[in-house]
Amino acid sequence: MNSEHGFNPAFNMATIRQAFTEAVERVRMPTPTRLRDLIRQIRAARTAAEERAVVNKECAYIRSTFREEDSVWRCRNIAKLLYIHMLGYPAHFGQLECLKLTASTRFTDKRIGYLGAMLLLDERQDVHLLITNCLKNDLNSSTQFVVGLALCTLGAIASPEMARDLASEVERLMKSPNTYIRKKATLCAFRVIRRVPELMEIFLPATRSLLSEKNHGILITGVTLITEMCENSSDTLMHFKKDSGNREIVPNLVRILKNLILGGYSPEHDVSGVSDPFLQVKILRLLRILGHNDPDASEAMNDILAQVATNTETSKNVGNTILYETVLSIMDIRSEGGLRVLAVNILGRFLLNSDKNIRYVALNTLLRTVHADTSAVQRHRTTILECLKDPDVSIRRRAMELSFALINAQNIRTMTKELLLFLEKADAEFKAQCSSGMILAAERYSPTARWHLDTQLSVLIAAGNYVRDDVVSSTIQLVSSSPVSEQTYITNRFWESLQVANHCEDKQPLLQVAVWAIGEYGDLFMYGSNEDEFERPTESDLIAVYHKFLTSAQVSTTSKQYALVSLAKLSTRLQQCVEEIQALITSFGSHLNVDLQQRGVEFTQLFGNYEQLRPALLEKMPAMQISRISSQNGESSGSFDDNSPEWNGTEGSGNALIESNINTMGENTNILLDLLGSTDLSAGASDLVVATDLSNAVHKKNTRNANDIAPVSNNQDLLDLLDLDMSAPALSATTTTLGGGGDHSSNMNNMLAGLDLGGFGGLDSTAGTGGQGRISSLPTNGNDLANMLGGLGGVGGGGGGLIDGNGGNLLGDLNPTAASNNVTVSPPQNAPKLTALDKNGLLVELVPVIGNDCMKIFMTTTNKSDNTLEQYLFKAAVQRSFNLQMLPPSGYILPPGGVITQEIQVVATSNAVLRMRLRIQYAIDGQQLVEETEVSGFPQQQPSTSE
Amino acid sequence: MIKAILVFNNHGKPRLSKFYQYFDESLQQQIIKETFQLVSKRDDNVCNFLEGGSLIGGSDYKLIYRHYATLYFVFCVDSSESELGILDLIQVFVETLDKCFENVCELDLIFHADAVHHILSELVMGGMVLQTNMNDIMARIEEQNKLVKQEAGISAAPARAVSAVKSMNIPQQIKDIKLPDLPQAIKDLKF
């Protein structure tokens, strides 16, 4: 302690020597490499590794200079860093140095600093706060270029907070006499409004003078700003239209446009013979918005649009740009008939243009106008169909979309023929979209039932594995609702196509539909009347084909599932080969795939003890009604797209109405299944339905290959359950009384409810072993539970609304009377209440209570709106110095007036004041919404002693 | 609105990347890579518009590009921009570069990446067109460059002095000092 003050020659000598050597080192330290030299070094690198070495060395050096606060070379170092950033190496460590540069007084530094800020800054708050101050200073600078830099940066990276803080500065600069500053401020205002639409008001007065400017820079930015404002709110649109007296906007724009096209050559703004096309395009675009659904405004611009359309030189791209924009405007406003004819003719010319770009925009425009004026577009049909054969992907895509838009009852046959040709040769990326589009069109316009069936078949053949799942289900639906003669016909056609298609693994959807039809209509197919004189296979041939599919490694699990169910059905339709079928089915009892194994076991039972049930259980399905609304289970199925038809069928033997929501979500299925944590759950859930309702189960969308990875313990659980169910004595009676715990009635039938409860047991145990099953949204009574499970089972386990949340709160309780494991937490009444959010009818309140070792915060969310909020998820974050633990919430669905509670425990490790960031997610009608907010004002708590 | 402006060469090496919407550094690189893969496999005789970039924005977005010698200029825009108009804008951008650098080539972009950014920021600001008059852009850029030169003249002096001192290698310089060879000099003295 003493030595610092007292005399200690050795120590002093040492420090002096050290200081001296440091000083020498500093002077001897070489100047940093120049940017130019660095680039040379990097370019000289022969391999990627060499380049990386050079960059890493330089980055290390730059970092060290940042540490040493070397302000002399900061500018040069940042410039190098920006180059390194461009090459794709991480450079975010330069953010703060950029800010230091922007605070410098030199323009050179500011220029690089702001450039770096634009390129490197992320949306972290602290850095943004710093730059807001720099920007504020520079917006008040006396040098126009400094102001320009600040505006440019603000225009590029403004966050909502920055926008709020600096909006008034921007507004002031919009009135600056300097045109250079004014145009930048105008665009900056555009950005501010983009980020924070409420700020629009303060810019309104400043927009008045923008359109009477001479300077094109200000005109173009002004038009941009006004366009944004008009698009943003209809009130503002009206404000601009009705702006008092002589300042009306439409005549003003018309005047500017007229000056541009008739004003003669002005070298300043000429772009290959056209005067400022950019401004013209912007004005035409604004006119389109102003004239939309407004006869008066449209009337005022008819003339000028006609003038532009006829006076524009079209030998160059620039001219066509303007014509293109004019056509769009004519089509969008209430224009005169003659003008529309002119516009469509221009498009016709575009379509024949040799320039690919022009053809592309023509197709694009036709697609936009086809709904307004179909007959005009129909005239170009042959040209459009020609474009389907274009070598350019972009043009082909447009042509395809346009072709679908053009199909109607008159031309469906020819159009389908062309599209089928296209489909056969199309790239993989088109096949899915094209096939779905064709199926939709055929559904709407098909002239006859047989033609419709043939088209479906052709699409399945042409698109192969690229067919989306909805095509499979819609085809099955179609066949099921056709008359018997058509069913026989199409089953024969399916059989034929199976024979012809040499690689069935490439056409699995076809395979699925075909085996479904053969299984379902096996009797008609083999022994019905044969009007069309098809060649029929012998029964053993048929079984041989099934054998081939079922044992092939290339056939997917889903297809095998179809085939297996189909085979079971055939066992009651065929006359001789029942033993072969039984043998084949029994062999699946030991299949590696859980789902197939389960089916094998179940069906085997139907050949053994329950032989007498088989014919009744395997009856033909009733005709399916086509409806595209999935309202019944809508609450539990959160995110289904609208191609999930709901099929209502009456079970032939059971007299019970069985509703099953058969879902065709395609790719969604897998995602939702992933959410379940263990894909096996879905197999369990849907197979329980299989046990009771075989015919519906045929269409279950099961997991594709995911079943293979299910843990063994789960299988055991599920099989146990199944054994239980299968051997339940109730099974021998009518099907409706099957099931264990179903003594509560529901709008599903008892059987399903009972079985599904069993299925939930499976879910529970799986989730328990998996340890991360995230299952939630518990209903509080048995009926709802059964309902939701019905949805769950029908969807193949995919009820989106059901699965989310972070609770370890599993469905522990199978007993329907005790199924409410609401974790209702109730805070003490006298505690202070913090309102975290009160918006759109959603009220989130927090009640902090200081406990012994932690603070407990009780969150209560109340839904005051009339909507049901689903998938409600409450997330909280606190500073590093706190530990946060969230207990599972009481629910995930908020009906109107509903309440969700959740307890949060916060442990402080230092004396900091607690602040909490909240993110609240929920869905209304399947639309995801996110609210974020920050809460402070929590009572101070003592830091935990254990830390 | 323009979401991003990318310039890369025929091998996919980025020469300019400017994003008007925030993306993470690694995502930016992915976007550049994806864009290059999409654009580079297209022939020169097909149209200049491309849909289907999956990383920026989705279906509302288009890639609009032009290919000049060794460089691709790609603008990623949303549906509120005119496709043909953007093509003209690319042309204006390239012509401006050509004027500023006098016959612009890839090397200019490499060695003056910052200058390219400065030019671009006079043309497009925050994703919207700011000024398309080439002469105006050129004039502004020149004025700013003049400002930078002035500063380099006055205030850079101390920095230069420091650097001169720093780069001085004193022992070497002492060695390098040439003194006349004394005996020889003595000999040369002629009396």
Automatic annotation (TrEMBL), chain A:
GO CC term, one of those recorded: AP-1 adaptor complex
UniProt keyword terms in alphabetical order: Cytoplasmic vesicle, Golgi apparatus, Membrane, Protein transport, Transport
Main subcellular location of this protein, as a coarse class: membrane
Protein name: AP-1 complex subunit gamma
Membrane topology label: Peripheral membrane protein
Sequence ranges assigned to domain GAE in this UniProt record: 829-939
Matching InterPro entries: Adaptor_Complx_Large_Subunit (IPR050840), AP1_complex_gsu (IPR017107), ARM-like (IPR011989), ARM-type_fold (IPR016024), Clathrin/coatomer_adapt-like_N (IPR002553), Clathrin_a/b/g-adaptin_app_Ig (IPR008152), Clathrin_app_Ig-like_sf (IPR013041), GAE_dom (IPR008153)
Composition bias type Polar residues, residue spans: 630-647
Pfam families assigned: Adaptin_N, Alpha_adaptinC2
Family (UniProt): Belongs to the adaptor complexes large subunit family.
GO BP term, pick one: intracellular protein transport
Region (Disordered): 630-655
Location of the protein in the cell: Cytoplasmic vesicle membrane; Endomembrane system; Golgi apparatus
UniProtKB/TrEMBL annotation, chain B:
One cellular-component annotation, GO: cytoplasmic vesicle membrane
Boundaries of every AP complex mu/sigma subunit domain copy: 1-147
PROSITE patterns for the chain: CLAT_ADAPTOR_S
Chief location category: membrane
Top-level taxon in the UniProt lineage: Eukaryota
GO biological process, one term: Golgi to vacuole transport
Keyword Metal-binding: no
Keyword Transit peptide: no
Alphabetized UniProt keyword annotations: Cytoplasmic vesicle, Golgi apparatus, Membrane, Protein transport, Transport
Membrane topology, record value: Peripheral membrane protein
Subcellular location: Cytoplasmic vesicle membrane; Golgi apparatus
Family per similarity comment: Belongs to the adaptor complexes small subunit family.
Function: Part of the AP-3 complex, an adaptor-related complex which is not clathrin-associated. The complex is associated with the Golgi region as well as more peripheral structures. It facilitates the budding of vesicles from the Golgi membrane and may be directly involved in trafficking to lysosomes. In concert with the BLOC-1 complex, AP-3 is required to target cargos into vesicles assembled at cell bodies for delivery into neurites and nerve terminals.
Protein's UniProt name: AP complex mu/sigma subunit domain-containing protein
